[in-house]
Amino acid sequence: MDSKVETISRLAQWRIDNFGPATYKRSDPFKIGIWNWNLSVEKNRYMYIRLFPEPSRVSKEQPPVARFILRVTTTGTNRKPYISPIHERLLRTSDDFVWPIDTTFQGRFIIDVEFLDLKICPLNGGEASPIWPSDGVMQSLATQSTLRCLSRMLDEAIHADVIINTADGTVRSHKAILSASSPVFHSMFLHNLKEKESSTIHIEDMSTESCTALLSYLYGTIKQEDFWKHRLALLGAANKYDIADLKDACEESLLEDINTSNVLERLQEAWLYQLNKLKKGCLMYLFDFGKIYDIRDEIDNFFRHAERELMLEMFQEVLTVWKPA
Predict the structure, then answer these.
(1) CA separation for the pair 33, 27 (Å, rounded)
(2) Does a cis peptide bond (omega within 30 degrees of 0) precede residue 133?
(3) Does 219 fall in a domain?
(4) What Cα–Cα distance (Å) separates residue 324 from each residue in 249, 319, 320, 321?
(5) What number of other Cβ atoms are within 10 A of residue 59's Cβ?
(6) Distance (Å, rounded) from C-alpha 75 to C-alpha 108?
(7) What's the burial of 142, exposed, middle or buried (CB within 10 Å: 0-12/13-18/19+)?
(8) In this structure, is residue 253 part of a structural domain?
(9) Is the CB of residue 321 less than 8 Å from the CB of residue 288?
């Protein structure tokens, strides 16, 4: 359908197959963040593209401040992109943002909107609050008083009974917390392994900072910014120590900010740790949304080092996307 907008992560893409004699088109609503959005395109001597939130109670009471880039690309072999500057606007109505392009397109073309940031503008003044990353997810399963106790146990090593040797230092923890969080740690202390005898664990593939972030997650006290900073290290630890909920949280987080500079790295991580949702998201971003055209140099180097099975899956995705109509 000509009015449908596809979305993934923070990217929205509107494919217009045929403008025809019409001078105005408006997309169906699409959801990014907490708002439903619309795109419209108007053809005169110039082409005018507008981005605006759909009128609703949410957009009225919590109007968005959006930081974004627009791109218009013609289809076919001669893909000529028109790329806007980075815009940051308070958007309330369709009159708040208009991007004029000194051209008109014939035939099919694609409009991309990449949201770099979204904030809620307070009606009573003050600083806008970002919606990404969302706070509170890591602490939703425990009360604040329990979390304060666990935080003290970790920070002050209260009755700590195990030492963890990292790549650049040591931290102290509790066998009970580790065992309850991970079947791998539980097995270490249950059986007559060297970890049980010495009360020492070697996690030398993590820095002290990353290992502290891992422990903060297990104790329920991790801060959102620390989780984002150490996502890849936490993903590796979650896979190694079979911490399923942390692995899922890392996958969901890595899906949230796919872009051209990290999509190949994310695809490699998805393949390494068997993250099917992340892998599918990366392949959709590259092929369904056509972003592979933007990273031609990087993709050549990627193919030289990629696993054969991963390359086969990427080739199959190409066949799926580019099959004849």
Answers:
(1) 18
(2) yes
(3) yes
(4) 38, 9, 9, 9
(5) 19
(6) 6
(7) middle
(8) no
(9) yes
User: Cβ(110)–Cβ(14) under 8 Å?
Assistant: yes
> In total, how many domains does the chain have?
3
Range of the domain at 313: 258-321
CB-based contact 52:43 (threshold 8 Å)? no
58 with 26, same domain: the answer is yes
| Token representation of residue 310 | 């991963």
Q: Helix 263-272 and helix 276-283: axis angle, to 10°?
A: 150
Instruction: Determine phi and psi for 141, rounding to 5 degrees.
Output: -100, 5
| β-bridge mates for residue 50, sequence order | 40, 98
118 Cβ partners below 8 Å, 6+ apart? 32, 33, 35, 64, 65, 66, 67, 130, 131, 132
**Coil, helix or strand at residue 312:** helix
**With a threshold of 0.85, does the pTM exceed it?**
no
Q: Could you list the pLDDT tens digit for every one of the 325 residues in the chain?
A: 679 999 999 999 999 987 777 689 999 999 999 999 999 999 888 889 999 999 999 999 999 999 999 999 987 666 678 999 999 999 999 999 999 998 767 778 899 999 999 999 998 888 999 998 765 544 444 367 888 898 899 999 999 999 999 999 999 999 999 999 999 999 988 876 676 677 899 999 999 999 999 999 999 999 999 999 999 999 999 999 999 999 999 999 999 999 999 999 999 899 889 999 999 999 899 988 989 889 988 887 887 777 777 777 777 766 665 554 4
Residues 83, 13 share a domain: yes
Q: Which of 70, 9, 59 is nearest to 29 (CA)?
A: 59
Structure tokens at 224: 């959102």
64 found inside a domain = yes
**Start-to-end Cα distance in the chain:** 14
Answer yes or no: are the C-beta atoms of 25 and 19 closer than 8 Å: yes
